Structure formats: structure tokens, C-alpha cells
Amino acid sequence: MSQVDTSPVHSAVPLPPIQPPDPTFPTKLMLELRGTRFEIDRELLMSLPESILIVMFPNGLILDDQIIFVDFDPLCLEYILNFYKTAQDAFYSNQESSSAFPHIPTPNPLLNKQAIIVLREELDYFTIPPKSKKKLPSSSSSPLETDKDAVEMSTVEPTINIYELKTECGTYLLHQRKIFTALQRNVNKENNVAEQHLIDMLCVSGFSRDDEWGYRNIEPHKTSIVSIALVILKTTGQNQMATAQKLLLFWRKPARKCWWDGLEVTVGEDKAIP
């Protein structure tokens, strides 16, 4: 199995634009994602993390057609938009509650925008069928043995449906929803101090070590699982603010980590396929 591309990306929900958008571009876009249609504000779409937009529009956003067809899971986009809406509402609510105090302009984006950490994982898995170790007895008569039959052991290879095996392995991995389990296992194996420090920073900034993916699904017709988790960046304490400043280095420059991992599991309805 291959664990690919865990990308901490630092994004932000922008404030409403002061100037109206260019009239030559539509303010709302109609997207069709694998049969599901979304009407979305252009400004909101452009505010999504760059790592998400690249996957949605690998050839760029083309506005020639009224309906834009996108090969992207609608459940994933719905999860992202719902989180952004919740984060935006919370940010503006805090802004209104503090409006009684004089506003002091600051160049620090952590103080005038709602920052969000985005983790995205692509897991490509490869299924290796098991080698049979089962042997069945078979009797055969020998002309040299008159009082008993010679018993031979013959190996029987079971018939394994490779497509069914891939499906079962994908289902097993789909239920492994802990964000940091696979990465932590790889860090422990390689004793990578830098990546351990990154996990620690993410946990200080809003994630928990036992957090699960907010979205996780198998890509259609592929042995690949895509997962996404979002969290509002914490900046309440001095330690958290210092960590947030370090995470700003990932703004529009996602950190990427690729590694190989292997698991031996037993799958199937009767757990008969090791």
C-alpha cells in the first residue's frame, strides 16, 4: 500500500471584496460534479485552498460554458463549503462583538482573516494476494505397500477474485479514519524528528492526535482513497500564535510528504482472505 501526499496547507476565508467583481466574469458559477450541480459564488470558489483547486481544475478554470463539468466528489466539496460557511460566520460574529473597540490596522493576516488549516491525503493502495499454505491429503496405492495406503499431501490453490480482493482492501482502509496514525507509524519507523515536530505543531494549532478525517472516500474506478480534514487555526495563546506564524510558511506552498507503507490484513465476510 502506498500512502501519498499529506499536505498541510494554510488557507483563509477572505473578507467580502470592497469593489464589485469585474462585470466581464460571472459572479456565480454553475458546477456539475459527477452528476451533482452546485451554484457557487466565484469569489468563494477562488478562496478555496490551492491544493483543492488544482485537483478540481487541473487545466485551469474555463468560463466558456454555462455549466462547468468537474471530476470531483460532490460530497467533498459540500464538506469544504459547509466548513467555510461555519468558519466565516464565526469570524464575522467575533468581529461584530469586538466592533465597540477602535480598529487598529495590522499587517498580520492572522488578526484580520479567519485562518484554516487544510490536510489532504491521497492514498494509492496495491493489493497482493496471499500465497496458499493449505495442503489436503490424497491417498494412493503403492505396489510395495500391501498393508496400508501411502498418504501424500497435495497443495490446493484457492481461487481468489482479485477485483473482489481490491474492493475488500479498499473498504478496510476506508474505515481507518485516524488522521495521524499512518504518518506517525512512518515517523516512528524512520525516526524523523522534523516530521514529528510538524505533527506536534498541527496538534497545537487546532488538531488532536486522535482526530479523524472529515471527508474520506474511495475514488470511482480506482484503488485510491482521498481524505480531507479542516480545522480553524488557533491563535488564542502566545504559544499558539508563534506556531501559527510558522505554519504561515505553508501559505500557497503546501508541504508534501510521500511514503510507502505495508499492512497485512484479513478481509472478506468470513475473514477468510489473509
Automatic annotation (TrEMBL):
Transmembrane segments: none annotated. It comes from Cetraspora pellucida. Residues 1-23, 131-150 are annotated as: Disordered. Residues 14-23 have a biased composition (Pro residues). InterPro entries: SKP1/BTB/POZ_sf. This is 7972_t:CDS:1. It comes from the Eukaryota.
